[in-house]
Amino acid sequence: MKKSLGAKTFLYSSPVLLVGSYDASGKPNAMTAAWAGICCGQPPCMYVSLRQATHSYGSIMERKAYTISVPSVDLLAETDYLGTASGRDADKFAATGLTPVRSDLVDAPYVAECPLVLECRLVHAIDLGLHTMFVGEVLDVKADEGVLDEQGYLSLERVRAFLYAAPERSYYAAGEFLGKAHVAGKSFPARG
Amino acid sequence: MKKSLGAKTFLYSSPVLLVGSYDASGKPNAMTAAWAGICCGQPPCMYVSLRQATHSYGSIMERKAYTISVPSVDLLAETDYLGTASGRDADKFAATGLTPVRSDLVDAPYVAECPLVLECRLVHAIDLGLHTMFVGEVLDVKADEGVLDEQGYLSLERVRAFLYAAPERSYYAAGEFLGKAHVAGKSFPARG
Question: ipTM higher than 0.90?
Answer without folding.
Answer: yes
